[in-house]
Amino acid sequence: MKLLRLKITDPKGFRSLQAGFEYCFRSEWDLQEEKGFAPFVCAGPNGSGKSNLLEVLAAIFYHLECIYLTNLPDSFRHEEQENQDGFRSEKAIPDGFEIEYLIRPQEPLKKDDNGHVHVRIVKEPNKTPRWFLLNHEDQQDPLEPPLGQTHARQLLPDYILGYSSGENEILSLPFFKMRFIQFDEYRQALEDQLSYPGRPESRLVYLDGGFSQAILLCNLLFQDADAFKPFREDVNIEELNEFRIILRRSIEVNESRIQAFGSQDESKQESIEEIVRNHPALTAVEDEASASRYRVNLVHLLDGEEESDKIVPRLKRCATCWYVDETDDTLYLDYHINEATREAFRKNFDFEVNKSPIALFQAFQVLLTLNLYAVGDPLKADLYRSDSHYVSETVSTLASDECIMRFESVRFRKSDVAVPMMLKSLSDGEHQLLHTLGLCLLFKNTRSLFLLDEPETHFNPDWRSNFITRLHQCFGDAEGQEMLITTHTPFLISDSRPEKVLVFKKDNGSVSVSHPDYNTLGASINKITMSTFGKRETISGHAKAILEGLRQRFEKGEDKERLISEINRQLGDSVEKLLLIKTILDSMEGLD
Description:
By secondary structure, this protein is an alpha+beta fold. It has 20 helices and 22 strands.
């Protein structure tokens, strides 16, 4: 995928991006010159709109996903409307946009000489998006009839992948909305006794703490030594040692929730007892007071006979050992990692067919999404309508023993530590490196859009200076990915050509984007700091204040030799220090 142009036509704009904001990512010349993987690096002051660019792209593709999902759950009722073309649409945020990109579809559509289709999508406020295929002159009008699901899925990115560091959640909202849609898709299939494919239909994936272990385990189980080189060289990880999966299969539900599992035929009246008796995921339990309580097996559609191809039997076939604690209906799966374990995962999760760990990740994704079971329908309805920045303030985190699925005892070997380590013992920077590079390794062979918001905040200077190199190592010769990274570090800019550096500026409430007016590739950190970030000094603020105080004392006529001695004693080497000393020495020569 290659982004070409984005314009916001919603009269309200989007976050800090004003109505009419437009940016062209590539010119015809750029397309001819561009070779291989190269991310866009978004730089600029805090609050200049960098993260909003990533968020609006996530919001646009979230909206398009909602239109073309086959199994949009009944709980999704965010201002749905029937459009004249019959598509069901969630009101978009922003409600007006134009986006253009190139993509290589698998279906036989008209392509350019490089195998791309030039896609333009135009969404006017309160109207359904219109699709244009612009490879040839006879395709300047919108497609009629409107684009169907089969072609739309081919012309959309394989995945939209998001990462945001720390407490910065500005990017996460579209992804969390889709995560609840994915859960309700499964829940509705469970309640209605329908089949479930074992993977989410939508392609939005957000990497946060709950999914980071899944990303890391998939890479540690499947990737070869060459692909794993960045992990080994920077974090000193040698190999995965063991881990445990805990599945709390059934939970207690109120009698009021049982009705949702009954017949959808309104003319058919079923008692609670009949519903429980007729639904395989429900059981009734009597307590000592002979009062009836009810439990639902949330993993019912994912479990089955050992020979079946459902998720839980496949995980059992890969396990070193497993057992069920009957007291609370919890399944424990233990994995001691050796070549036989890896081979079992390869066979059971399609690695030998797809040459990718994505099938295992999707299995983990489905199971982890079941942890949203505790969120009620009113809160979900509010979330679907929300444009809030902070999802975590609304959706509480479950205690570990309340989770349907969780990882435990993830241990691995490091070359600089004698005994196996727990994953939780790693530093913030090590976690961040494993998460971001792991996301790239996992989806490297897909036509995906990667949106990484400040992925290097916890890195030391050496890791920051090597981050672009590590990204290139992850992707290798793979093609088809698009990546946008926001940053405040000059190191990422120094590893990028100027046409790949987007400098954001905000004046009088209006955001503008430009390229640096100098060659950024290989430019010094000082040059980038001064030219792109507007930092003229090479020293920090407190040291600068001390230096200025010494300068003022010189200007007031204090003894020059004593001042030079004090400058050398107080301050380390810097250009600013040398310039002040030179000024003092020049004044002494003038006196001589």
